[in-house]
Amino acid sequence: MEPRTATAPQVEGLVSRERALRDFFEAWEVPPHLKAAELVSLDDAAGRIAACDVFSSTTLPVVRASGFDGVGVRSSDFEAGSPDTAGWICGRDFVRADTGDDFPDEFDAVVRIESVVLSDEGAPSFPSDLRVKAGDGIRAAGSTMRPGIRLIAEGMPIRPTDLAALAMGGAGMVAVRRKPRVAFIPTGSELVPAGCSVKRGQTIDGNSPMVKHLLIEYGADPVMFPIVEDDPDKLREALDRALESCDAVVVNGGSAVGSEDFNVHIIEERGRVVHHDIAAVPGRPMLLGVIEGKPVIDLPGPAVAAFYGMQWCIQSVTARMLGTKTKTLPRVTARVEERRDNPPFMANLSRIELHRDGREFVARFLDPRKGSSLGAALASNAQRVSPLGEGALEAGSTIEVELLRGEEFIGES
Ligand SMILES: Nc1nc2c(c(=O)[nH]1)N[C@H]1C(S)=C(S)[C@@H](COP(=O)(O)OP(=O)(O)OC[C@H]3O[C@@H](n4cnc5c(N)ncnc54)[C@H](O)[C@@H]3O)O[C@H]1N2
Ligand code: MOO
Question: How far, in Å, CA of 23 to CA of 63, rounded?
Fold first, then answer.
């Protein structure tokens, strides 16, 4: 193994996240088998990505329907004003026609039930000034659904309302993109699984539960590997198993220059490294590589670094495999509470505790340099990625922050 040159955590001249992804997508192409669609039932289509445009084939109402709860009548009976309804018989002179009901063709209008008084025998009487025209209170054929309406477009995530549209448009099965299988391999002899007690020298694998559910959120099928200790042979073996069964591999940890950071070398010896070390912090030592035509990404170990790398990189790779777009987080404008210095040559992910001050949002940066913990950062309710080239943020200036919890959960400090 070649000795590596240590790079300081904050250095100038590294590639931007955007450039790293552009280069990666030039070096790696989505394989055809991932572009193939699979047919799933409507129930299983929720949250999946539509593989093609789907158009309606149905007409609803099939002929016509009542627009509200009421009484179906003949408009001709109302030509000379409100008719004398003594002796009217249901089915002959009128019918009950409630919202959405089809009813016999000889009745051409519906009078709202609120305008009708029904006798004990069920005969209706109408206000003397009631005007009724043909078509009143009737929903036309196709006013709910008609053939040719685009129900979902290719590449769109399928929402519950889309399921309603697809069902009513006549789609029993839906063509969706195959879920890419993404392996996650946590590495580090110091790691113990969540729920275990920790001894000196150990720490808890918090990334596996986080990454698993981020992958699910991105639309992938996560394949979670057990913790692999810092032993090159065991790491190689896990990587081989992951490459055999998955479409992409995320290795976690061992991305920097520590004496047991083997993953970078193992990826280098097996395939092509497109970029290692990105102008994004935390998580600068991220590695984007390709082995046997599959993305192999080494995600830095610290949990916030891993989260950020998942967001900007793995989410984009997964979206590419699914033929869809990455999600943007909702944003609000906030006032900066305290001056913040960021190196301008890195995209800095800052975790923020957002609170309200009257009608204003106030951003309190959680700064590890000022004693804030990684735990507090993980629990925070907002974040901001500084654009490359940005210097200090002055106290009192306004910025856009991304919400990690709904606005309804942001309270007074
Ligand atoms: N001399 C240098 N040291 C470091 C550099 C550097 O350039 N020179 N880079 C730093 C930066 S920046 C980062 S980011 C980290 C990258 O760390 P690794 O990806 O090599 O990860 P490890 O060394 O294996 O672990 C680092 C840290 O993260 C914890 N970890 C790892 N996996 C998990 C997990 N699944 N769940 C929770 N925590 C995890 C691990 O225990 C360590 O505490 O390197 C810096 N050092
Ligand atoms: O500073 Mo690293 O970039 O710990 O994530």
Answer: 56
If pLDDT is split at 50, 70 and 90, which confidence band does 8 have?
A: low
Q: Locate the ligand 2 atom nearest the alpha carbon of residue 308 and give its number.
A: 5
Q: ipTM for the complex?
A: 0.98
302 lines ligand 2 (CB under 6 A): yes
User: Hey, which of 255, 259, 265, 374 would you mutate to test ligand 1's pocket, going by the most ligand atoms within 8 Å of its Cβ?
Assistant: 255
Q: Tell me yes or no: is domain 17-36+179-322 CATH 3.40.980.10.
A: yes
The CB of 295 under 6 Å from ligand 2? The reply is no
**By the 8 A CB rule, do 14 and 279 touch?**
yes
Instruction: Please give the DSSP secondary-structure letter assigned to residue 60.
Output: B
Residue 256 confidence class, pLDDT cut points 50, 70, 90: confident
Residue 192 is encoded by which pair of tokens?
């113990």
What strand order describes the sheet that includes 70-73? 95-97, 70-73, 109-112
Considering the segment(s) 64-140 as one domain, its CATH architecture is: Beta Complex (2.170)
Query: How far is the C-alpha of 334 from the C-alpha of 401, rounded, in Å?
Result: 7
281 lines ligand 2 (CB under 6 A): yes
How far, in Å, is the centroid of ligand 2 from the Cα of 306? 9
**How high is the pLDDT of residue 327?**
95
Domain with CATH 3.40.980.10 in the chain: 17-36+179-322
What is the percent of the chain where pLDDT is above 90? 89
Tell which one of 7, 255, 281 to mutate to probe ligand 2, the residue whose CB is within 8 A of the most ligand atoms: 281
Q: Does domain 331-409 have CATH number 3.40.1160.10?
A: no
Prediction pTM value: 0.92
Instruction: Tell me which residue has its CA closest to atom 4 in ligand 2.
Output: 282
